[in-house]
Amino acid sequence: MLLPTFLLLSLFAVLPLGMSVYKSFTDFSFYKTPEFTGFHNYRIVLADPFFRKSVLVVFKLVFLIVPLQFAAAFLFANLIKGMSKKVSAFVKTTIYIPLVISGIVVGAIFSFIYDYQGGILNSLLQFFGLEGQAWTADPAFALYSVAAPAIWQSFGYVTLMMLAGLLDIPNDYYEAAKMDGASAFRRMLHITIPNMKNIFIFILISGVTGSLSLFEIVLMITNGGPGGDTLTPFLHLFNHFNNDPTMGYTVAGAILMALILGAFSAVVFRLVQSDKAID
Amino acid sequence: MNNEKIARSFMNLIGILVALFAIFPLVWMVISGFKKQEEVLAFPLKFFPEQWNIRNYREILTDSTSFFPDGASFTHSMLVTFGVAAFSVVCSLLLNSMAAYVFARLDFPLKRFLWVYYMMTMFVPGIAVYITSFMVVDMLQMTNTFWVLTLPGIAYVWSVFFIRQFYLNIPVALEEAALLDGASRFRIYASIFLPLSIPPFVIMGINVFLGFWSSFLWPVMTISDPSLYQINQLIMFFKSQRNTEWHYIMAAASIASIPPIVLMLIFQKYIMQGIKLSGIK
Q: Which of residues 59-98 of B touch A (CB under 8 A)?
């Protein structure tokens, strides 16, 4: 009964992982027999200014997306708690919908919103007498133009996670604190936040890894431009996969990204853990 | 008391405004799909089309102006994507729940090792294996087949983990009688556990379906035959061909978004449950 999943996992997850690690140390391509080259590929990737820039870009995106989304979702989840039943049911359903849309469709919608000539964003600006902007081509805006849809798409999901956590805290805690005269701020600090620890960890990890993996939205909206200002590592590696017959570079880059993803999850996990220890 | 009421209606109001703002891009997509090309690019902006015309939608669905490469059509691609997702969901639920049952109930040598082996794959980011997975399916000559789209995504350890968690809560007493009667483990799984599995199956089924419906990178790498194009691949292709014809692109994007949204609306109760369960592990 275990056999089917075991075979599928071995063939499509474990074997490729082993191959990736092995191939990253060789100069293989699809056309010739590979030779062992040690850390050569890794050195090339790490020395490549495009790869370095793409890592920098994606970290900028992480710092744009994750804190904003986190704060907005936390505030809004607290707000939903105070709404009437009917309204909160409507709100919960509505804000969740963007999550089920594919990244490609999200990218298409926002490309249209940002469109220089017909986009609604510029139409609005011009309505107020302001000048339209080339949102996706101007280095001043390009990064924000890909961060915004990313924040938008999972805002509802993060909010609902937060809400689930909030509703899980017994109301007695708050009542008791109120009786003792604790202010709303103190109640949040000493009841809400400690009790939400697990949810916070989960949201931060998935937010960071999700942002680090941004790909489809960027591909559709800016395709990495202008001048590589929004080129994320995934998009960079995707372009390499398509254009570069020597696969060693691509695989080594992919392994590096996987390590960054893993390490970041671990760091976020640690940070939140130790915060808790101080309490 | 009165104050509380005011506060509540204030929160209601803000809530509705935020919800409308959040849904606006999708509403805008659907509205724009009804417009003519001149209206889409019109300045000053016309919010609603002069006439609600389903022409764009019809043209996309019937491919009357040959938007798509030979062998592909929008409806065909929708059907193929749906077939791939539906097949994978069914296989995924059955096979992963069998594994979940084994890990929840059976004891055998190497169980520990196998559990770690399974769990390990959950922590490997997809990026680390995409290219070599492509090499594997290339060696197996699976590219440009239905199987390359379905098979690699079926074994899903998060699903095994989730369903196992659910099975652990089923009382052992339920299967003891069957075991005494000499029923095989598979029969117990099939006759006792499967019928009880609806809640985790719905949650995981939606999860898997949505994953397949939004898939893009893997199909782009493995499918070049237009008759197997997945819907996102087709939309990407379409957008690159019809750069400023937003009325068509938005109509296509709207149609492609119907299945996930309908699914989400039907099963929203289960989805909310799933959110709770995944957060408070």
A: 95-96, 98
Is B51 inside a domain boundary? no
A226 has which bridge partners? none
- In this predicted structure, the answer to whether residue B65 has a pLDDT above a threshold of 50 is yes
Cβ pair A109:B136 closer than 8 A: no
Separation of alpha carbons B160 and B153, rounded Å:
13
Facing B44 at nearest CB: one of A123, A152, A215: A123
Closest alpha carbon to A125 in A115, A111, A136: A115
CATH of the domain at B75: 1.10.3720.10
Confidence category of residue B257, pLDDT binned at 50, 70, 90: very high
Domain hosting B127: range is 67-279
Place of tokens 């992480």: A62
Residue identified by tokens 């964003």 is A121
- How many structural domains are present in chain A? 1
Cα–chain center distance at A200: 15
Question: What pLDDT, on the 0 to 100 scale, is given for residue A278?
Answer: 39
Quote the pLDDT of residue A126: 84
Residue B145 has pLDDT above 90, yes or no: yes
Answer yes or no: do A95 and B28 touch at CB < 8 A: no
In a domain, A17, yes or no: no
Q: For residue A24, is it within any domain?
A: no
**Alpha-carbon distance A130 to A115, whole Å?**
16
Is the residue at A188 inside a domain?
yes
Whether residue B64 is predicted with pLDDT greater than 70 in this model: the reply is: no
- Residues lower than pLDDT 50 in chain A: 276-279
Q: Which of B118, B139, B136 is nearest to A6 (CA)?
A: B118
The tokens of B205 are what?
Answer: 């089924």
pLDDT band at B279 (very low <50, low <70, confident <90, very high): low
Residue-number span of the structural domain to which A60 is assigned: 32-99+154-278
Number of A:B CB contacts under 8 A? Answer: 256
Nearest CA in chain B to A78: B11
Q: What is the pLDDT of residues A25-70, one digit of tens each?
A: 887 766 667 778 778 888 888 888 888 999 999 999 999 999 999 9
A53 within domain boundaries? yes
* Residue bearing the bigger pLDDT, B2 or B100: B100
The domain total for chain B is: 1
Q: Smallest CA–CA separation between B152 and chain A, in Å?
A: 6
Interface mutation vs chain A, best among B11, B74, B231, B247, most A CBs within 10 Å: B11
| One-letter amino acid of A48 | D
The CATH number of residue A72's host domain is: 1.10.3720.10
Asked if A261's CB is within 8 angstroms of B127's CB, the reply is yes
Distance from CA of B259 to the nearest CA of A (A): 10
Q: pLDDT, tens digit, for every residue of B261-277?
A: 999 999 988 888 777 76
Average pLDDT across chain B, whole number = 88
